[in-house]
Recover the amino acids of this structure.
């Protein structure tokens, strides 16, 4: 398994529980577990999904807050790892560089850089499970800004937040309008002199309660396990209903969101200028604002929103196309992330380099033409982890099927004439920039990248494990020490 974050720890637990006889290792390139939630250190970092669904199905979320900060999430993940005996399976400072598949041995030879020593190590594995999501954890996305070198202040990207950054009493401009920006602005506003959110295009922003009172009551009334299950089903249904409403009645959804915004903003605030995107709700992910904190900062005068385009950075701030100049001591480029599918691992199958953009996703778990490889990609229209749990269920069922029938290898086979479309049907900039590098999806099951939890539960958890689109094989040569170098 590659990655000791939300997906990797979850997958490890499913393997330990469902297939306890299987041996596995979790390779983590960084020095700590927790993935995104340990890496990002910017002020206010928190989930934008409720932890009843963003957490694991098998482990109740017991904190009062449904929208949790990074420290709470990391604690939850590490507690999960310890409770399920996963700590001994995690190898830190192990960054996977390359994986080569041999059909003769039905094994992957995984080349790893040990980042603390620079050494190369090799692991032999029957399966490769890529649990690192699809973000590039090394570099975030920052467009080229004219005149950036002229700016006399500090420019910071949230992915590389300096531990010693002091913004007390300073003028801050946050460039961006996505989840990171709407988190940063209210979090910095209490200490900064003023924070300006500078956006080129508005985003849909919805206030949500930080505390889910009903979920807390359900756990109190029915106990942690049963209460967690009930609250989880309630929230899954709620998320699905909101998404369906936005898809079927985009005009009505736009009106509802606008009304929520208008009620929480100062009288006379230009809502349509700053909070009325040109696209329909859920063409991109809605930004959650716990307890309306962004709107509160704007009402208090601690923060403001500017919708304009950047002409150039200046010595003292940013010059906009309108001619207005925003003064700043610190500029935060909350301009998004980059996608690096499968952690950027170079894949080779029987000596041939694999171009994953030519493959097609199968059940959202495997890729056509690539044996014994699984990937963990969650939902874009709901909590990420809901999909991870289902695909881990399917992964374990598939491994059990191989064992039962004496197969060593399996891979999906796609019709080369099959109609395809982009892997992620999502308008976010980070997705659009990467579409040419991503695999494709089909237009019908099992080649759809489904975003429907209820359908996925039927197919991945309770449906048939195999179908006519899967090919199976067995090794033709034994694994020897010479063929596969094993790392202790």
């Amino acid at each position: 398994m590659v990655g000791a974050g939300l997906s990797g720890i979850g997958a490890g637990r499913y393997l330990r529980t469902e297939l306890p006889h299987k041996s596995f290792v979790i390779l983590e390139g960084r020095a700590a577990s927790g993935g995104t939630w340990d890496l990002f250190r910017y002020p206010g970092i928190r989930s934008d999904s409720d932890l009843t669904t963003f957490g694991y199905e098998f482990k109740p979320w017991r904190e009062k807050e449904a929208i949790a900060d990074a420290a709470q999430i990391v604690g939850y993940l590490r507690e999960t790892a310890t409770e399920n005996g996963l700590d001994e399976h995690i190898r830190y400072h192990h960054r996977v560089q390359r994986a080569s598949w041999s059909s003769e041995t039905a094994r992957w030879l995984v080349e790893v850089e040990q980042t603390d020593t620079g050494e190369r190590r090799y692991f032999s594995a029957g399966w490769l499970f890529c649990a690192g999501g699809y973000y590039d954890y090394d570099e975030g996305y920052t467009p080229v800004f004219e005149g950036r070198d002229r700016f006399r202040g500090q420019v910071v990207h949230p992915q590389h937040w300096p531990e010693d950054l002091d913004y007390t009493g300073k003028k801050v401009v946050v460039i961006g309008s996505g989840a990171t920006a709407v988190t940063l602005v209210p979090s910095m506003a209490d200490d900064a002199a003023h924070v300006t959110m500078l956006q080129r295009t508005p985003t849909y922003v919805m206030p949500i309660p930080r505390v889910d009172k009903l979920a807390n009551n359900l756990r109190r009334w029915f106990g942690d396990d049963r209460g967690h299950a009930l609250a989880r089903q309630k929230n899954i249904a709620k998320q699905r209903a909101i998404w369906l409403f936005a898809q079927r009645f985009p005009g009505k959804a736009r009106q509802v969101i606008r009304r929520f915004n208008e009620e929480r903003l100062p009288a006379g605030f230009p809502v349509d200028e700053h909070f009325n995107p040109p696209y329909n709700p859920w063409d991109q992910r809605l930004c959650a604002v716990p307890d309306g904190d962004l709107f509160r900062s704007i009402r208090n005068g601690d923060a403001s929103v500017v919708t304009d385009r950047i002409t150039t950075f200046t010595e003292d701030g940013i010059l906009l196309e309108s001619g207005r100049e925003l003064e700043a001591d610190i500029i935060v480029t909350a301009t998004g992330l980059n996608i690096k599918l499968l952690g950027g691992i170079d894949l080779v199958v029987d000596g041939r380099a694999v171009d994953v953009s030519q493959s097609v996703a199968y059940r959202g778990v495997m890729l056509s033409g690539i044996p014994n490889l699984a990937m963990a990609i969650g939902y874009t229209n709901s909590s990420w982890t809901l999909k991870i749990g289902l695909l881990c269920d399917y992964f374990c069922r598939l491994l059990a099927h191989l064992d039962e029938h004496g197969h060593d290898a399996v891979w999906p086979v796609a019709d080369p004439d099959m109609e395809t479309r982009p892997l992620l049907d999502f308008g976010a900039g980070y997705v659009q920039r990467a579409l040419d590098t991503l695999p494709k999806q089909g237009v019908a099951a099992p080649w759809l990248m489904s975003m429907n939890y209820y359908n996925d539960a039927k197919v991945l958890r309770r449906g048939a494990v195999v179908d006519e689109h899967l090919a199976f094989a067995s090794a033709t040569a034994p694994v020897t020490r010479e063929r596969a170098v094993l790392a202790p």
